[in-house]
Design brief:
This protein is of the alpha/beta class and 296 residues long. The protein has eleven helices and eight strands. This is DUF829-domain-containing protein.
Length: 296
């Protein structure tokens, strides 16, 4: 029996984890300077009532754009087998890209904005890109104009990051347990170490390492795209030094544009809440720039 879809008001489920909301224009013709489709890959254990605030923000900017949301648990990001992660994202591909360009046969190609939140979002956007290639061929890359990375990526050295990851999982599951948060974090710390050692014994590549590699491979992500990284120095889960180091490496790979935006004082995936105008203005400006570059 397939998993039951969670309630996500205003959205129609495509699966138990993928949801869609069409824009105001039911004919789906967005203005030429707007995205036709926005895909949000939520943070681990993100609840619909929280993730929907980002969908609402995008809807205010681009009211004719359809919005898809992928909701995933942190445990799915860390422990789900690779093929299962890829297949879980296939409804996105079949909906947005029935053909390689997503034109549905009418010649109108998709203009896609990808919005990725935390490492869980990064793991599943990578899975979506691989799912696209499984559907349309390894010689093709999932079309998009702009990839926005909110509070991701972080460091990839397990021993240095396990404390942060266990804290994130503890926060996401705190309501499930009656004891103090520190106890939940300790349990997740033990679980993550056990899972890591088991992966090492099996020779499996950790999901975060896999996603970081895939997202920077030229045969998976087109260099004719732009990226924007949103972060703060106060993020307790994603170290800003790790993110800046990763971005410095990405800047050498030949993407059309790689931009960053530093927010002051905001927590993990909390930049939009504390700096609403700065957040959406930066995304809007980068979208305009990405579109101008691609159409120039």
């Amino acid at each position: 029996m397939p998993p039951k879809s969670i309630a996500f008001p205003g959205f129609t489920p495509l699966s138990d984890r993928i949801f869609i909301r069409n824009g105001n224009d039911t004919s789906r013709f967005a203005p030429p300077d707007h995205p036709t489709t926005i895909i949000i890959f939520g943070w681990g254990d993100g609840m619909p009532k929280h993730v929907s605030k980002y969908a609402d923000g995008f809807h205010s900017l681009y009211p004719s754009s359809r919005i898809l949301v992928a909701l995933s648990k942190t445990l799915q990001a860390s422990n789900q087998p690779l093929n299962d992660r890829i297949q879980a994202m296939m409804p996105i591909i079949d909906t947005v890209f029935p053909t390689p360009t997503g034109d549905g046969g009418d010649g109108a190609e998709e203009r896609v904005l990808l919005h990725v939140m935390s490492n869980t979002g990064g793991i599943f956007v990578a899975a979506a890109m691989v799912a696209y290639q499984e559907r349309h061929g390894k010689d093709k890359q999932m079309p998009h104009e702009l990839l926005v990375c909110d509070s991701t990526p972080g460091g990839l050295v397990f021993s240095a990051e396990v404390g942060r990851w266990s804290h994130a999982m503890a926060v996401g599951t705190a309501k499930m347990f009656p004891w103090p948060l520190i106890v939940t974090q300790a349990l997740w710390w033990v679980f993550l170490w056990g899972n890591y050692l088991l992966e090492r014994l099996r020779g499996a590549e950790p999901s975060g390492v896999w996603a970081n590699r895939v997202l920077n491979e030229a045969d998976v992500t087109s260099r004719k795209t732009s990226r924007l990284y949103l972060y703060s120095k106060e993020d307790m889960i994603i170290g800003y030094e790790d993110l800046e180091e990763n971005v410095a490496g990405v800047m050498t790979l030949g993407y059309r544009a790689v931009d960053t935006e530093l927010f002051e004082g905001s927590p993990h995936v909390g930049h939009m809440r504390m700096h609403f105008e700065q957040y959406w203005n930066r995304i809007s400006d980068c979208w305009k720039a990405a579109l101008a570059i691609n159409q120039g």
